[in-house]
Amino acid sequence: MILGRTTLSVLICSALTACNGDTNSNTVPSASSTSSAQAQTTVKVFDSISNCSTKADVPNCNFSNGIYVIKLGNTINDAQQQRVVNQANNMMQWAHQDVRDQFAAKRIVIGVIENEQSLNGPLGEFVLELNNKKGTIIDGIELIYTNQGKDETQYPTTYQKLMQLYDYYIDQNTNSAPGSELNQAYDQFKLALTTMKPIAQANNQEYLTYDECNYGNQQLDNNRALGTPNPCTENGSTINDDGDDISNGKPDSVHTLATNLNPGALLGTVYEYKVDSARNTPAGELRGSNGSSFSDTGALGSLTQNQMVSWENPAFKPLDSYLTKWFFANKS
Question: At CA 215, angle to CA 212 and CA 221, rounded to 5?
Answer without folding.
Answer: 55
